[in-house]
Specification:
By secondary structure, the chain is α/β, with parallel strands linked by helices. It is built from seven helices and 17 strands. The two termini are 33 Å apart. This is Response regulator transcription factor.
Length: 259
């Protein structure tokens, strides 16, 4: 198997290559690239065929997803990054797995085993049939069921709140609250980190350490100091909601329907 590594940090690339060879010493690393430009050139200029790519999300000259706007890559890809918010985008472009840094050998081995399993499940038919089966397998990997309702307690009663009825979630110390479009507040047994994993990223966005917003609850967005954003909601609330500077780009993509 021929593998191409796309990583802009030399120590990270070397460690990844070491883990790949540890998993299977017969795997051939045919190249290491560190920029969007180099990856685009590689696939535009007829370089050697690859069987698998490991791709870091953030490269020296931008996000790796820019590559897919310029060239077509119909090979399985394992993405690596320090940021979890790019997972959905990764699975839209042939991603079969998404590894969070710091990368461990166990994570790399797990991804390669997943690829082996995908390939073993493909029938040995003509190439066009194999491509179709691989596409179907990738589609199954990409599917995810998001939580669309929450059970809450109201005194001695139990009620169900749908995702569409939620305006936002917010944390106060160790408690997390669900706030509805009807201005009702309920404590729930989830952390914001857990909610990020189970909520539909098209509907919900983690604005900062304390808030996860629902798209339909946002009434206005204002430019704020230090390149941040201030959010106004349809539901009056007594706390400021500021999108932290490191999340502004992702917020704009979400708000524009690009999540």
């Amino acid at each position: 198997m021929k593998v191409l590594i796309v990583e802009d940090e030399k120590p990270a690339a070397e460690k990844l290559e070491r883990y790949i060879r540890q998993y299977d010493e017969t795997i051939e690393i045919i190249g290491r690239l560190d920029s969007v430009t180099k990856v685009t050139d590689w696939f535009s200029n007829g370089h050697p065929e690859v069987d698998l790519l490991f791709m870091d999300v953030q490269l020296t000259d931008g996000y790796v997803f820019e590559v897919f706007k310029q060239v077509s890559i119909e090979k399985p890809i394992i993405f690596t990054t320090a940021f979890s918010e790019y997972a959905i985008e990764a699975f839209k472009v042939s991603g079969i797995d998404y590894l969070l840094k710091p990368i461990t050998y166990e994570a790399v081995a797990g991804s390669l085993k997943k690829l082996d399993k995908l390939r073993s499940n493909l029938a040995l038919n003509k190439p066009s049939d194999q491509l179709q089966q691989l596409a179907q397998a990738l589609t199954q990997l990409q599917k995810k069921n998001y939580k669309n309702r929450f059970m809450v307690r109201v005194g001695e009663h139990i009620q169900s709140v749908t995702a569409e009825q939620i305006a936002f979630f917010y944390a106060v110390d160790r408690d997390v609250f669900l706030y509805t479009t009807a201005k009702k507040k309920y404590i729930i047994d989830y952390t914001l980190e857990e909610l990020e994993e189970i909520l539909d990223p098209v509907l919900f966005f983690r604005a900062n350490r304390s808030f996860i917003l629902q798209i339909n609850a946002v009434s206005d967005v204002l430019m704020y100091s230090n390149s941040r954003l201030k959010i106004h909601l349809h539901q009056a609330f007594d706390k400021e909601i500021i999108v932290s500077r490191e999340r502004v780009v992702q917020f704009k993509e979400w708000f524009n329907g690009l999540s």
